[in-house]
Amino acid sequence: MFPTYDVIVVGAGHAGCEAAAAAANMGCRVMLATMNMQTIAQMSCNPAMGGIAKGQIVREIDAMGGYSGIVTDETMIQFRMLNRSKGPAMWSPRAQSDRNLFARKWRNLLEEHPLIDFWQEMVTGLIVHDDRVSGVRTGLGLEIPSETVVLTNGTFLNGLIHIGEKQFGGGRAGERAARGITEQLMELGFEHGRMKTGTPPRLDGRTIDMEQLEVQPGDDPAAKFSFTDTTPLEDQIPCHVAYTNPKVHDLLKEGFDRSPMFNGRIRGLGPRYCPSIEDKIDRFADRDRHQLFVEPEGRDTCEIYLNGFSSSLPEEVQYEALKSVPGFENVKMFRPGYAIEYDYFPPTQLSSSLETKVVKGLFFAGQINGTTGYEEAACQGLMAGINAARRVKDEESIVLLRSEAYIGVLIDDLINKGTDEPYRMFTSRAEFRILLRQDNADIRLTQLAADIGMQHMDERVVRVRQKQEDIKEIFRILERQSLVPEELNPLLQHLGSTEVKQSLKAHKVLLRPNLHLRELRSISESLNQQLSAFDTETVEEAEIQLKYEGYIRKEQEMVDKMTRLEEVRLSDQLDYHQFGALSAEAREKLTSIRPSTIGQASRISGVSPSDISILLVHLGR
Prior knowledge:
Blueprint: E1 5-10, H1 14-25, E2 30-34, E3 48-50, H2 54-63, H3 68-75, E4 76-82, E5 92-97, H4 99-111, E6 116-120, E7 123-129, E8 132-138, E9 143-151, E10 160-163, E11 166-169, H5 181-187, E12 193-199, E13 202-204, E14 214-216, E15 239-243, H6 246-253, H7 277-283, E16 291-296, E17 303-307, H8 315-322, E18 333-335, E19 338-344, E20 362-364, H9 374-392, H10 406-417, H11 441-451, H12 458-480, E21 482-483, H13 485-495, E22 504-505, H14 506-509, H15 517-523, H16 525-531, H17 536-547, H18 549-566, H19 584-593, H20 598-602, H21 609-618
Parallel strand pairs: 1-2, 1-9, 2-6, 9-20
Antiparallel strand pairs: 3-5, 4-5, 7-8, 8-9, 10-11, 10-19, 12-19, 13-17, 13-18, 14-15, 15-16, 16-17, 21-22
């Protein structure tokens, strides 16, 4: 009934969609298996993409030939660049999406690909022979053969939903949990654990008095995620901000004795940086209010996602507390918030390609690895799909370094440090974040994607090369253009900067802090005219490179030093117990994780600098 596929992807969330698309764009024949074709790429939680560090990941996915950025651009209803008040390394794009349109656009892209087939049924197990995967088994007892398998099961593995004292099996509201895979993986020798996440109630926007709330508009003009020619966003929809108060907190506390979080029914750890409303009230008892973000679910619906009010309290407690939020006096709920527990597998059981160490040809991506967030899942799916395809072709895996991408930071953190709580990406996790800006993701990664054989990258490579040439030309313009004191000093005086007595070249003036290129363009018609030939994004990137040249150079020197450690290989057969000078913890961790390089070993928790020195001595370095 079925041919032998190159890659089978189990699960059609953000990780699964990117994995299927990537493997197909690498020329592989792909089967995407999902329990429900109507929920492909569904935004299970908030209707948004990007955010702090997450926006950088979406741009990196796009630069690597993935689809998350394109889909977001074509379906977003609002765009904001976060952290504009900080340095450009911190700038992070974020978009509100039309939930239904987002899923529909993703499904259309996948269905248009001639190398992707679909199968709607629960996958209940793997076919494994001699420690190598050779297909999947479904609930109907069908066996679908494949060279490789990518598991992207999200929160569905033995998922358990909690609302107050009620609990029932499910992968998300209205959908059943997946059974069988966890049990088989345990039999094969995998370790597993439980994690928890949650979601807020969905509300009827017609019953909220938006006049009482703060308006949160999008950027004007709106930027975008994809480096391709996606449609510019117009007619943005505003979000709003509401606030809780002591009365709301008191009403919520009345239900704490029935909260599964506090009475021990939930054993899995939840995301530290996205706590439930009851957790916030408990942990931050000194605060008399918390922000709530009122986010529309789309253009053609009145449904509202209440970001910041994630809860697993009884539905009547949630409802009564909501009515005490100013503007929500007459609010109606579409469905209550809930918590969900699910199985995950500690990612230290993976190699840097996201292939499991126990079963060859089997890859994990997304929440099965202990991460949280659409963006974190999507980038893992992209890399798992690429590496599954390369495994089929008997080619070396593609591993992004920490100095090359946030994607590299995320995967490196997971496989070396593991996680016992849902992992979320932040800019602070990246030691080379000045190099890993959102504006230069295309320059960092597009050529690599083309080199490894991702389809449809030729035009993107041409675009990147043109951008690099344009940046060089902008540098030349700034080095040639003189600014005389008469036009420059009024601006400097306004900014509180030292005035000049003679003409200066524009690139020298631009090195002053708190002075930006847009201000120089406003006082020099000649400069403005010359730069008008370039698009806004290219001009902005040229300015960043110029102003932060010294910092960028120093960070690159650090990268070069680290790269030397990454080039020192470690045998996967090395017996670490032979080194008596290594700490006991280092021997245990190195034996378990089996790092492939000295650089990777140095980032394992419990491996000290002295342990690294011992290994270098052994290697004659």
